[in-house]
């Protein structure tokens, strides 16, 4: 009520004041080598547990065995498994897990994997607790508003990227219709997440590069907007961005460098656990446009962002001018030249950073040309993504310009 009454005032001076916020993050983080053993204390002793995982990486690298050993130490009686959660997890697959949860009277979920497995687990936790008769797809159609409760769950993270291990969001795809939609709810924070950097050692280079880019863009979505006099959020964001620039190459090229992987893991978590986004305007247009590229063309999530972000910076340079200049100076040490030249350099440095990780920044790298744009814009319209950006003024025409700039 109070904020609504003040809204017109703030709207006329959107750049001057930190926004009110209500921030609580309940996820316990168990960080470091050997932390999987701590599952024995984190999972409730009498739980009926379902382990959820993906296509088998956690079987091959021994992570699942380690998890099972920890649960056995705790004397947990019922532990069953659900495998096959795919990258960009699908509603169709996850509904089979919901059936299993109900059939086996599971009361605790444990995700073992990357963002897709954790997101999928959040959906299963929420869908299994929906009232009888509620269509689970409504979780996505309402962005999570129909979720009033969820099964408790934890995670063991194997891919630093999404921040899903310490936030309440998930992104689920209906394969049949190519709908990739986000949801979030106060009920879908993990109770705990185990972050053991050694569990990332088996990641393919491509997935590590994806992780660096995804975390980078999570930060820019909450930072590259307009000034809100949020000094510490800005400084945190800049510190996280600079850290990613510093460690990016080593993260990709030195798979068993514990310190680098530890820094990547914690940076990616802090990039999207709500901390740097509290009290500041947020954009998310890059993500929403990127989701359509994944849904229609199967491009990895982070790779869509590497294509869209430079184009968003280019097309939105006037709206984002002040923050782009701050970004140029504080992240890239660009201090010389006209304002426009500094912004141009900052965009180029961003592009070069992604390319240096072998993550392309043009649609043409995926054999997509101008004919791809109409269907993408139509998908945005279908999904109600018609007012994107920090000021909700990225309409379908602007999204079209962004996609054109990304060709
Ligand atoms: O399926 P398995 O066999 O486990 O293999 C996976 C998968 O093929 C593999 N992998 C994971 N850990 C590994 C490993 N391979 C070897 N060693 C390991 N330690 O990596 C592949 C990709 O995994 P995935 O979980 O799909 O990647 P990521 O963590 O990047 O997650 C992407 C998903 O998260 C969503 C995306 O939209 C996408 O669906 N996002 C979720 C967010 C959130 N919840 O806050 C925010 C993000 O913006 C993002 O949208
Ligand atoms: Zn992302």
Notes on the protein architecture:
The chain has 407 residues and is an alpha/beta fold. The chain is 48% helix and 10% strand. The chain has 16 helices and eight strands. It has a six-stranded parallel β-sheet with strand order 1-8-5-4-2-3, with helices on both faces. The longest helix is centred in the middle third of the chain and has 23 residues. It is globular and about 65 Å long. The N and C termini lie far apart (44 Å). The N terminus is likely disordered. The structure holds 5,6-dihydroxy-NADP and zinc ion (ZN). Zinc ion binds next to helix 8.
* Structure classification: alpha/beta
Strand order of the largest sheet: 1-8-5-4-2-3
Element order, helices and strands?
A: HEHEHHEHEHHEEEEHHHHHHHHH
Helix proportion: 40-55%
Oligomeric grouping of the chains? single chain
Q: Which hetero compounds are present in the coordinates?
A: 5,6-dihydroxy-NADP, zinc ion
> What percentage of amino acids are in beta strands?
5-15%
Low-pLDDT segments: 1-13
- The first-to-last residue Cα distance is 44 Å
- In DSSP terms, counting alpha (H) and pi (I) runs of 4 or more, how many helices? 16
The major β-sheet equals: 6 strands, parallel
Q: What integer value in Å does the Rg equal?
A: 21 Å
Number of strands: 8
Averaged pLDDT, please?
96
Overall 3D shape: globular
The gist of it:
The chain has 407 residues and is an alpha/beta fold. Helices cover 48% and strands 10% of the residues.
How would you describe this structure in keywords?
single chain, alpha/beta, six-stranded parallel beta sheet, 8 strands, 48% helix, globular, binds 5,6-dihydroxy-NADP
